[in-house]
């Protein structure tokens, strides 16, 4: 799959990839496959942001497979290791059924607004009719920023005055979407209220309006996390996942970080599919997450047996 999307993913993940595969390959090639090796592997994975739980699981699984199959050839060890990674991230997608109301959640600064613009453009480019709703009404700047993006990608925006009730914006947007035959209504939400309880209450309220008014629409809750924050991204995913149902995750800013391994921890620990990866600040810099491509890129192995 050496097309332009793969190349874009490769560029976007280059920092994660070079931090990851060199360490792993060196470790495997220059070690005896003894207990020290497995300890060191586990430590390397943790330092690569795969999380303690997932790192332990991968290491144990590798130990078993090597033992069971009597693998000693180092190329085979590496291949076995990468296949374990691939199996971990290869979980079912949540398919996007149309028409859909997509509620985009996440803390401030992770890239929600930018990702919404990218998604709107992406949907529009394949012939769908997207619409954006500005339900982050707490800061005037948030609505203005979204409006600038909506103009740029030429997608209709529903908004209200700053300070308006977010749920009323959602209400208006759903009715507008229905009457205009919108395929995907993408709702921007606030990332920070006075505290976490308030934020989750607000999201819950938005969810209820979507359920009540959104008859005939599918529902899709998308969490945005920032890859550069490493373990924080996992923590945020866990908190949101406990409070509301999540269908998928968009992981942004992969281009600026070597901490992309956190994607593996999130998928493994929470079982939520990563659907999109942000690799830059322009409207084109969003890639559909594909488990095999992701592992091929971060391991720099394009010939994995599966
Ligand atoms: N490098 C890079 N920057 C991003 C990406 N996504 C968002 N950003 C930047 O992150 C900052 C915050 O984004 P914004 O959409 O306003 O976040 P929000 O507060 O969650 O709505 C902005 O400067 C964006 O340009 C990405 O994939 N890569
Ligand atoms: Mg925003």
Give your account of this protein's structure.
- Strands 3-2-4-1-5-6-7-8 form an eight-stranded mixed β-sheet, with helices on both faces.
- It starts with a helix and ends in a 7-residue tail after the last helix.
- 53% of the residues lie in helices and 14% in strands.
- The model has no long low-confidence stretch (mean pLDDT 94).
- Helix 10 links the parallel strand 5 and strand 6.
- The longest helix is centred in the N-terminal third of the chain and has 18 residues, at 52-69.
- It has helices at 4-12, 14-29, 35-47, 52-69, 74-89, 112-125, 140-153, 166-179, 196-213, 231-243, 262-270, 291-299, and strands spanning 100-105, 130-135, 157-158, 184-189, 218-226, 248-252, 274-278, 286-288.
- It has 306 residues and is of the alpha/beta class.
- Magnesium ion (MG) binds next to helix 6.
Strand order of the largest sheet: 3-2-4-1-5-6-7-8
Rg, rounded, reads: 21 Å
* Tally of alpha and pi helices: 12
Bound ligands: guanosine-5'-diphosphate, magnesium ion
Instruction: Please state the structural category.
Output: alpha/beta
How many strands?
8
Measured between the Cα atoms of the first and last residue, the distance is: 15 Å
What's the main sheet like? 8 strands, mixed
Helix content: 40-55%
What general outline do the C-alpha atoms trace? elongated
Summarize, please:
The chain has 306 residues and is α/β, with parallel strands linked by helices.
């Amino acid at each position: 799959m050496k097309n332009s999307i793969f190349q874009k993913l490769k560029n976007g993940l280059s920092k994660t990839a070079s931090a990851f595969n060199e360490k792993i390959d060196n470790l495997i090639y220059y070690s005896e496959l003894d207990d020290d090796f497995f300890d060191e592997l586990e430590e390397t994975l943790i330092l690569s942001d795969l999380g303690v739980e997932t790192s332990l699981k991968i290491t144990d699984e590798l130990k078993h497979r090597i033992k069971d199959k009597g693998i000693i050839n180092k190329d085979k060890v590496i291949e076995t290791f990468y296949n374990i990674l691939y199996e971990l991230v290869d979980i079912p997608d949540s398919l996007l059924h149309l028409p859909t109301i997509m509620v985009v959640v996440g803390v401030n600064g992770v890239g929600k607004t930018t990702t919404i613009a990218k998604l709107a453009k992406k949907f529009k480019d394949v012939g769908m009719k997207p619409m954006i709703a500005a339900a982050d009404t707490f800061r005037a700047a948030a609505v203005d920023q979204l409006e600038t993006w909506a103009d740029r990608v030429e997608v209709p925006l529903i908004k209200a005055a700053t300070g308006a009730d977010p749920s009323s914006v959602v209400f208006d947007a759903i009715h507008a979407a229905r009457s205009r035959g919108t395929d995907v209504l993408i709702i921007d939400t606030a990332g920070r209220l006075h505290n976490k309880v308030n934020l989750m209450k607000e999201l819950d309220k938005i969810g209820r309006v979507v359920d009540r008014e959104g008859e005939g629409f599918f529902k899709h809750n998308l969490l945005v996390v920032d890859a550069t924050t490493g373990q924080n991204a996992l923590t945020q995913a866990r908190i949101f996942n406990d409070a509301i149902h999540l269908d998928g995750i968009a992981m942004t800013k992969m281009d600026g970080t070597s901490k992309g391994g956190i994607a593996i921890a999130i998928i493994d620990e929470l079982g939520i599919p990563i659907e999109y990866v942000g690799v830059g600040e322009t409207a084109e810099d969003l890639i559909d997450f594909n488990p095999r491509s992701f592992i091929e890129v971060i391991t720099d192995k394009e010939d994995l047996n599966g």
